[in-house]
Specification:
227 residues, alpha+beta, endopeptidase fold (from Nostoc punctiforme), 2 domains, 6-stranded antiparallel β-sheet, two-stranded parallel ribbon, 5 helices, 8 strands, globular
């Protein structure tokens, strides 16, 4: 297990830069509209989704990464990931790959809205899996092909047979229910029964982090398997 402060001087040059992807062109149905929950849906208000029977989720130990620049680029993150062989617990902070884009709500390379909650969480799932640019490992077509809005994410996990639970784990997606239409990234699970989440577009088009009761999240969507 790698336990060290990662020195970035020359690291990116040695490992090779991964450039940020260009904006994706218009794609038909790239961001599908949210569909109302039907009576046959995986969940309806007050019923709850089927929860995976996981008593004590096993989360691999990961080294905490230090030494990143204050505003790391995709190249910095890729270099860190490679140096640590993927054994990284990323520090909290806004590393979103399109945070400076003026095209808020436009279509992103991941085929969600730029600087929205869904694109930020999709970015984090890719980052944690070691994907930092084109070709993306998990875009809209893999994660939520039946609907792009946050409200549809739990149904997409259920349709794919991916694990969900009311028990939070770091790296999971915090899904806030159909009415809230919001998802966030679970940065940490705290000893006092709270979770630290990171998100975009809770305040319009900007990054934020919050500490909230773990039980205030409707469902935790565990990281999907690599395609």
């Amino acid at each position: 297990m790698l336990r060290q402060v990662v020195a970035f001087v020359g690291a990116v040059g040695l490992l090779g830069a991964l450039s940020l992807p260009a904006y994706a062109g218009t794609h038909e149905d790239a961001v599908a509209a949210s569909q109302p929950a039907s009576s046959g849906s995986a969940a309806a208000a007050g019923q709850g989704l089927q929860v995976a029977a996981i008593a004590s989720p096993v989360v691999a130990e990961r080294d905490t990464l230090t030494g990143l620049p204050a505003e790391p680029t995709a190249e910095d993150l890729a270099a860190a990931y490679r140096l640590a062989n993927g054994n990284i617990s990323w520090p909290i902070g806004d590393d979103y790959y399109l945070k400076d884009s003026p095209n808020g709500y436009g279509m992103s390379p991941l085929r969600y809205g730029i600087r929205t909650c869904t694109d930020f969480v999709a970015w984090r799932l890719n980052r944690d899996a070691g994907s930092f640019g084109e070709p993306w490992l998990m875009d809209w077509g893999y994660l939520t092909p039946t609907g792009g809005e946050a409200a549809s994410w739990a149904d997409a996990w259920a349709a794919n047979g991916w694990a969900t639970s009311t028990t939070p784990v770091a790296g999971a997606v915090a899904w806030f229910g159909y009415g809230a239409n919001h998802v966030a990234y679970v940065q940490a699970v705290n000893d006092d029964g709270t979770v630290t989440i990171e998100e975009y577009n809770w305040s319009p088009l900007v990054y934020g982090s919050r500490v909230i009761p773990a039980g205030s999240v409707a469902l935790y969507l565990y990281p999907p398997p690599r395609p």
